[in-house]
Structure formats: C-alpha cells, structure tokens
Amino acid sequence: MDQNKIPQATAKRLPLYYRFLNNLNQQGKKRVSSKELSEAVKVDSATIRRDFSYFGALGKKGYGYNVEYLLGFFRSTLDQHEVTEVALIGVGNLGTAFLHYNFMKNNNIRITTAFDADTEKVGTDIGGVPVYDIHHLEEKLDDIKVAILTVPAVEAQVITDKLVEKGISGILNFTPARISVPKHIRVHHIDLAVELQALVYFLKHYSLDKPE
Amino acid sequence: MDQNKIPQATAKRLPLYYRFLNNLNQQGKKRVSSKELSEAVKVDSATIRRDFSYFGALGKKGYGYNVEYLLGFFRSTLDQHEVTEVALIGVGNLGTAFLHYNFMKNNNIRITTAFDADTEKVGTDIGGVPVYDIHHLEEKLDDIKVAILTVPAVEAQVITDKLVEKGISGILNFTPARISVPKHIRVHHIDLAVELQALVYFLKHYSLDKPE
DNA sequence: ACTGAATTGTGAAAAATATCACGACTTATT
DNA sequence: AATAAGTCGTGATATTTTTCACAATTCAGT
Ligand SMILES: NC(=O)c1ccc[n+]([C@@H]2O[C@H](COP(=O)([O-])OP(=O)(O)OC[C@H]3O[C@@H](n4cnc5c(N)ncnc54)[C@H](O)[C@@H]3O)[C@@H](O)[C@H]2O)c1
Ligand SMILES: NC(=O)c1ccc[n+]([C@@H]2O[C@H](COP(=O)([O-])OP(=O)(O)OC[C@H]3O[C@@H](n4cnc5c(N)ncnc54)[C@H](O)[C@@H]3O)[C@@H](O)[C@H]2O)c1
C-alpha cells in the first residue's frame, strides 16, 4: 500500500522489534542503542539500523533511539492502535492451544470467532471464543480478513476455497498441505514438522556453524 | 558436517520435498517433474532443480525424477532411517498439543520425554509420553540432543542454560524470549505472535503483491 | 531411425539480504 | 572549550537466494 519499498525481511522483523521496545518501555528504559537491541533480539546491529532507516531517521547519532518515540512510531506503523480480528478454523489440539492464548498482550490481535465440524465442540466457548459450526461459516465469518487454519490437512483446501469465496485476505496455515489461492490472497505457512526436521538436519550437517 | 555447501535455504526445503515425495509414492506415482512438484509445494521449478542439483544429478533430462529413487535418496540424506528422539519442556497449552501429535507419521522424529514444573502434570502420560519433574532434567534427559521449548517466556533462559549444561545440540523455541546460547548450539525460533502480526502487516501494506 | 515434445542441469544474471566501515553528530567529562 | 566515547545513517561491498534461459538429453509415436 503505502510503503511498498520496505523489504520483506525487514517487515518480518518489525513485530519482533515492537515487542522488545514494549518490554523496554515497561521497564522504564528511556533510550536504547542498536547494539543493545541487537543483543536482545539476536539481529546484527547494522541490520537493525538499516531496518529502521527505511522509515526515516528515527534515532540520534551518538545517542541512540528514544524508546517511547520509537515505540509510538511502530505502534502506528504496525497498526497497533486498532484491533485486528481473526478467525480460527479447526478447534483441535493446536487450535485449542491458540484459543487459550492471549495475542492481545503484545499485539492488538484477537481471535474472535472459531469454527469446527465436530458437534461436540460446536456451541462451546473456548478461552472466551465461541465455536460455530463450520457450515455456518457463511453467516458468522462477517468481514474478518485473517484466518488461522488448524484443520486436518485433507480439509485444508476445501476450507480455504470457502474462505476465499467469503473474501478472506490472509491465511496462517498450520496444516502440512500447501494450499492454492488466488494471487491477491496471502498465505503464510507454519509447518511445525518441517521446522523440527530442518533443525535436526542442520544439527547433523552443519555442526559448529553459525546459528540462523 | 559432510555437505557444508548446501545453502541453508535449500536445507530448509528438504523436509518439504521429502513429505511430498512420500505422498506421491503412496499414491503409486512412478515419476515426477520439477514442474509438477513445483505446483504441489509452491516453490519455483528452477529452484527445485537447483536444490536437487546440490546432491548431484538425480533426475533424467526429458523424463523427470524417479519418485522411488528420489525418496530413497532423501530418506538417507535426511536421516529418516534412524529415529531422532526429542524432549519437550513445558506441558501447557502448546506443549500438550505437540505431545498429541504424531511426528513419526512423515518424519522419524519422536517426542520421548516431557518435563514440567506443575506437580499436577508430573507423573502423567500425555499422548504416551511420560511427564517428568523439571528438577529431574539432569537424570531423565539422557542423551537427547533436541528440545522443544514451550515454557513461559520468563523461564526460557534458565531452562535453556540447564539444557546447554546437559549437552543439548538444538532447541526449537516457541517462547517469545530470544534465548542466548553458546555458538555451537543451534536455536530455531518459531514466534507465533510475530508470524501473525507479520501476516497482518503484509496484508495492510503489500496488498496485491506476490505471496511469500 | 527420425521427429517433436518434454524436461533436466546449470552458467549467467538478477534480486534480495546482510554486513562492513566510516563521516557526522551527540553527549558527557574535564 | 576541547576532548573522548558512543552511536546513527548509509554508501559500498559481500553474501545468499532466486530466476532466466537454453543446450543436452530422453522418451514416445510414427
Ligand atoms: N498438533 C500438532 O502438534 C501439529 C503439529 C504439526 C502439524 N499439525 C497440523 O495442524 C493441523 C491441526 O492439528 P491438530 O493436532 O490440532 O489436529 P486435530 O485433529 O486435533 O484438530 C483438527 C480439528 O479440526 C476439526 N475439523 C475437521 N474437519 C473440519 C472441517 N471440515 N471444518 C472445520 N473443522 C474441522 C476437527 O473436528 C478437529 O477439532 C493438522 O493439519 C496437523 O497436521 C499439528
Ligand atoms: N499457546 C499459544 O498459542 C502460544 C502462542 C504464542 C506463543 N506462545 C508461547 O509458548 C509458550 C507456551 O505457551 P502455553 O500457552 O503453552 O503456556 P502455558 O502456560 O499453557 O504452559 C506453560 C507450561 O510450562 C510449565 N512450566 C512453567 N515453568 C516451568 C519450568 N520452570 N520448567 C518446566 N515447566 C514449566 C507450566 O507448568 C505450564 O504447563 C509461552 O512462552 C507462550 O508465550 C504460546
């Protein structure tokens, strides 16, 4: 939209910076250097300065960054002033864990609606979130733009198609299935089994190398 | 160790390839082209061919790849012939979900041991995995080299230090804390709140751009 | 055997990301 | 006021990753 020039790698680090700035602010810290931040978030200090620089000159030479100012800046950049509502599809092991988690703590994101096919689960409240029947997706999804997908892999594509039809913009997909969507819709995959296996692979083949 | 030349980006995709090859094999498919694979895993076909090429010439020009051969090759490359034992620390919402999940299905990885501080949980079996008291980490960790960390963020560093002392090689860290470890130890972070927030950020600022 | 369609493996180019290194500026101290 | 220590912002460079594009090869059909 507005800042199409910001590299994706940078954009992915912004929420991380935001969280640590929040911590610092709560600890009453007034200023912070890229070096300090670097040690906290394990990102090279030059990378941090470069990342920040895409948004202009946010710091002061010889001084560092003013925590409060930087935090305020990122709050608006990350749209932390408004709550983003998210739907969760598939209230199983993983889905239930997410429903119990409070994403509001650091991020203004709230899972407001959940769906499942299991009649045992439909009608219940989990972590304060109502669970609706997946067949009522049409009516209950409202204008929610982001969905978390934690259904069995075989169901992933069918449900995705429904979400797309209903006008979803982004999907956080935890199933191992690589879902197909029209290209204006954004899908991020978090594939836990792959992550675990990749870690094991790195251990066996890259020992003593620098960590990621 | 042996193949230090393989790019990290490639290494991270290997488990994904492996899983899809497994699917194809189970479906009785005998051959596959990089183009087909590309559509299934959503990775550019040239990238797939390049990835495979680091391991030598695995395919045949004009034909594609033999599924069974490729699968066998990756099985040994990814050490799928031997089971990797993993410990899980923190049997809460997220930890419990993982204990119920069968990582053996596609990957020869098994969570064999879990630890928690809560006396209610200690002594129970969850998903067939015994939960030990965190104070018995010393005795019960044995020679497990990989740990999944799903404890509260404030506990993350303390427990990490214990794991390091006990000789762990890799940690899959789900806490928002950025833990410090000696540099021969590998840590992969999966930061769910960051992932969700990053997705939201992309939706607001990169609409209509190509998905990741 | 020949032809045409399919597909690999890879050199070369492009794009994306990370890091180095330093001039310019700020603050604190004497 | 001068000096020293600290730190940013960024041009330049290095590294990593992706993509293009095509010669070489294989296969299937005639
Ligand atoms: N649990 C883990 O640790 C883990 C790890 C890696 C990957 N995953 C993946 O995450 C996904 C969820 O895993 P899980 O362990 O929570 O599975 P689960 O079986 O516990 O939960 C799946 C839920 O989806 C519901 N469901 C089934 N069909 C549905 C439909 N058509 N519409 C709506 N809901 C439907 C089920 O009723 C169930 O509640 C799976 O794809 C799994 O492969 C899970
Ligand atoms: N649940 C989610 O959806 C979610 C999302 C994002 C991040 N996280 C992060 O994942 C981690 C786990 O989340 P959760 O929701 O499962 O939390 P949880 O509170 O449900 O579970 C934490 C578990 O760790 C145990 N524990 C506490 N101190 C311990 C210690 N010293 N040694 C061993 N065990 C100890 C607790 O008894 C509890 O069982 C947290 O750091 C959280 O921030 C969770």
TrEMBL record, chains A, B:
Homodimer. PANTHER family: REDOX-SENSING TRANSCRIPTIONAL REPRESSOR REX, REDOX-SENSING TRANSCRIPTIONAL REPRESSOR REX 1. Pfam families: CoA_binding, Put_DNA-bind_N. GO terms for biological process: negative regulation of DNA-templated transcription; response to redox state. NAD(+) binds at G90, V91, G92, N93, L94, G95. This is Redox-sensing transcriptional repressor Rex. GO terms for molecular function: DNA binding; DNA-binding transcription factor activity. It comes from Oceanobacillus polygoni. SMART domains: CoA_binding. Its main location: cytoplasm. Modulates transcription in response to changes in cellular NADH/NAD(+) redox state. Residues 16-55 bind DNA. InterPro entries: CoA-bd, NAD(P)-bd_dom_sf, Rex_bacilli-type, Rex_DNA-bd_C_dom, Tscrpt_rep_Rex, WH-like_DNA-bd_sf, WH_DNA-bd_sf. GO terms for cellular component: cytoplasm. Residues 79-178 form the CoA-binding domain. Belongs to the transcriptional regulatory Rex family. The gene is rex.
